[in-house]
Amino acid sequence: MEFNEYQKKAKKTDQFTDKNKSLASSMWNIQETLALLSRKFDENGRKTLDNEIYLDYVQRKLGDLTWYISNIATCHDLDFEDIIQANIDKCDKRWGKKKHKLRSFDEGFLEEEILPRKAIFRIKEVGNKTEIAIEGKLGKWFRIGDRVTDNNHEEDGYRFHDAIHLSFMTNLGWSPAMRSLLNRKRKSNPKFDEVEDGARAANLEESVSAMIFEFARENNWFENRTSVPLELLKMIDRITRNLEISEATFEQWENAILNGYEIFRQVRDNKGGYILIDMDNKQMEYSKTPISV
């Protein structure tokens, strides 16, 4: 039976003609049924989970809960199937798609519009500011962007946060900020140039970076962490939902954040350094001294 078919049949068994009363009844009954299930579980304990009588009781109560949830959806003129699909999509984004591979966002574009798949970047302090440069031919360095400070009343290392943008570029294949600094905007497609590579997208990326920075500060810069707060991932998902990077799963964002802060901590502690990026293999390598591709 399809969810929508169930919803239609369940609606025919609703004993209320007043929608508000029907809704209130379902809300109250959900609470009562959950309380009954919880009490039964406490009475029987985990060792009786395979008890036939207990399982029959659980099955009946789960059926009741399904009816109440379906009726709540009906009272709100919501499609039960849409609710189920949205929930599965949410779960899949966080815990599923373990082998989901992001497409290359600049595949098929002009060569000069494609982000460098392998490159070495240098971050170094110049006075009280920090600059980032990319290594060109014959070992020549080209500065990209302006020199920056922490832009804060107290020193906190934010001036080294370009390591995070490099991680976005390496692990997600996405960074409107780096694409702009490297002159790799996809101008051959006016819509991409305006929306995906434009000022708004770059500002959203900076907002994401600043938000992650605050979470990192509160979590020991994500050192020795294997995950980041789910709250953070949900906020990132909400901010970027209208951009191409919305295809990324929470796990991919998590990897990019943890990898980025592993590099950030080294850059911060050494007041600069060299970062080798490999977009094809989604790898970043840090060195205090010059390195080669």
Give structural attributes.
293 residues; alpha+beta; 5-stranded antiparallel beta sheet; 10 helices; 51% helix; 12% strand
In brief:
This protein is 51% helix and 12% strand. The model has no long low-confidence stretch (mean pLDDT 93). The protein has helices spanning 3-12, 19-44, 52-75, 80-95, 162-172, 176-181, 190-196, 199-218, 230-239, 250-269, and strands at residues 118-126, 129-135, 141-148, 272-278, 283-287.
Description:
By secondary structure, the chain is an alpha+beta fold. It has 2 domains: 3-95, Orthogonal Bundle (Helix Hairpins), CATH 1.10.287; 111-287, no CATH class. The protein is built from 10 helices and 5 strands. The chain has a 5-stranded antiparallel β-sheet with strand order 3-2-1-4-5, covered by helices on one side. Strand 4 (272-278) and strand 5 (283-287) form a beta hairpin. Helix 1 packs across helix 3, helix 2 runs antiparallel to helix 3 (52-75) and helix 5 (162-172) runs antiparallel to helix 10. The longest helix has 26 residues, at 19-44. The radius of gyration is 26 Å and the shape is elongated. The N and C termini lie far apart (57 Å).
Tally of domains: 2
Spatial order of strands in the largest sheet = 3-2-1-4-5
Helix content: 40-55%
Distance between the termini: 57 Å
Q: What is the helix/strand order?
A: HHHHEEEHHHHHHEE
The gyration radius over C-alpha positions equals 26 Å
- Count of individual beta strands: 5
Topology, please?
Blueprint lengths: L2 H10 L6 H26 L7 H24 L4 H16 L22 E9 L2 E7 L5 E8 L13 H11 L3 H6 L8 H7 L2 H20 L11 H10 L10 H20 L2 E7 L4 E5 L6
Antiparallel strand pairs: 1-2, 1-4, 2-3, 4-5
Helix pairs in contact: 1-3, 2-3, 5-10
